[in-house]
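Dear colleague,

Thank you for sharing your sequence with our group. We've completed the structure prediction you requested, and as agreed, I am returning the results in plain text so they can be pasted directly into your records. Please verify that the sequence below matches your submission; if there's any discrepancy, let me know and we will rerun it promptly.
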Amino acid sequence: MQIIRILVVDDFEPLRKSVCAALAERRDFLVIGEASDGLEAIQKTVDLKPDLVLMDIGLPSQNGIEAARQILDLVPETKILFLSQETSAEVIQEALSFGASGYVVKINAGIDLFLQ
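Please find the predicted structure tokens below.
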């Protein structure tokens, strides 16, 4: 069984901790780090080289879309999966347009997160 190493990025700590706890219940997932803003997400991705960055869009210091663009430039083998409350088709299209692997709306995360 291949273990997927994950960096969880969200500025709302209770949600971030909840996502980490849900991921920890799966033997094939390993949360290797957490970040609360876009710049920290970029730095931790460069340092930790996770297989997957699970990231919100609405982040302080740098939004998730811009952070994801930089992450994919710096560590192109990393996959990006957005987890956001944003449901606008335009925002979702922008988030997926540069190579993100998927998009999950937070309200559906309990069901959809493990289907991606």
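Summary note from our side: The chain has a mean pLDDT of 90.

Kind regards,
the structure core
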